Predict the structure.
Amino acid sequence: MNILDVIVFFVYMLAVLGIGFYYFRKNKDVKDYYIGGGKMSSLHVGLSVVATDVGGGFSIGLGGLGFVMGISGSWMLFTGIIGAWLSAVFLIPRVVKSGQKYHFLTFPEFLKHNYGPVVALVAGIISFIGYLGFTSSQLLAGAKLAVSTFPSLSLIEALVIMGVVALLYTAFGGMKAVIYTDTFQWIVLMLGLIFVGIPISYFYLGGYDAIIKVLPDKFFSLTNFSWIQLINWFVIIVPIWFVGMTLYQRIYSCKNEETAKKAWFIAGIFEYPIMAFMGVVLGLLARVAATKGVFIADGYADATSLDPEIGMPLLLKHVLPAGLMGVMLSAYFSAIMSTADSCLLAASGNFVTDILGLKDLSPNTIKYSQIITLVVGASAILLATTMQSVLGLMLLSYSFMVSGLLVPVLGILFHKKKKPKAALWSMLVGGFTTLILTFLKVKIPYGFDPILIGILFSSIVFVAVKK
């Protein structure tokens, strides 16, 4: 890589760390640390939400989908706008009202208010495990990107570098650092994609006529998917908007209900169509480049010999001139870290507040939170070293949380009776049914995802248990 690109990239990294350390001294208590004092604006929160939700996993994962199936992969993020707007209408009014009244910091505290401490503890454990896996998926995404653009780095070395930067500014800066760095990172990513990555790749490959000659028509169609695949995306992604700890933290960080709703509507629009199509288009262009033999020098003779998730980083490495490669690399690291930091803070919040039960406003609690954030981050790095697929690890984490936590939340929103025992057993049955089916690789009829069975079993248990 050109020295100019290295300079641009490291200047960017220093800027991100600077934001984190700036807010290090701004945090007075755990309310500041975990929800930014509850005074954030809709624009900052909205950009932070979409940066967190789309982030590295979906940025790299969408590139992989575009590589494999073309622009139809954009339908994955169509579920994002549905989830964002449904939760804005049905969930936010209820959460903001109780959150401000009882000073909630986490998602399980919302459950605790409705179902009691045992349910909240189990929810905290489920959420912690899910976000630990999710953090790992983002670090793995960053490592794959780094290895593709810095061939001298090993995957382990890249994971350590990626993890240390994300850990430092998140652990020290808390939610304010996360939200403001997310805003900065999302702007870098959007400008990088719109004005650098896509147009230069497009013209490098010869423009429209040259591109459509290389691949079959299905790659340029919006119907190159199965309905089963769309349903699986829907049941995995839409419900996360109702159970995601990172999202509850941002709801609590908003000034009021109107601010939170505006933030969610902003996030939905940025998810689909904006990010959805930009991600898969770059993946599609990477497929064109691989088919034309652009990556032969990298050891990939054709598209079939290449991991779909590294096609997009390889393309950028080949097409971007000195300086711009540093900008684009920074953009994608932005996306990755904007999700990794949020998931890391969510897992830390679950462990400190919901599992350990620490919520006092003393300075010592912030110190404990920072130490635990560092430990959780180190654990996420170790977990990432054992995994291969970014999208696979990310969706597994989603599935575990959704199948365990969705039904109790729906019970709060649409069922007048509070059933603590039903909520507890539905969480355990739903979450572990999905995990067991996934790890045992049980084939579900028609190709449905195991999460459907997990949610079904969870619903049956919730209805069957009386109290």
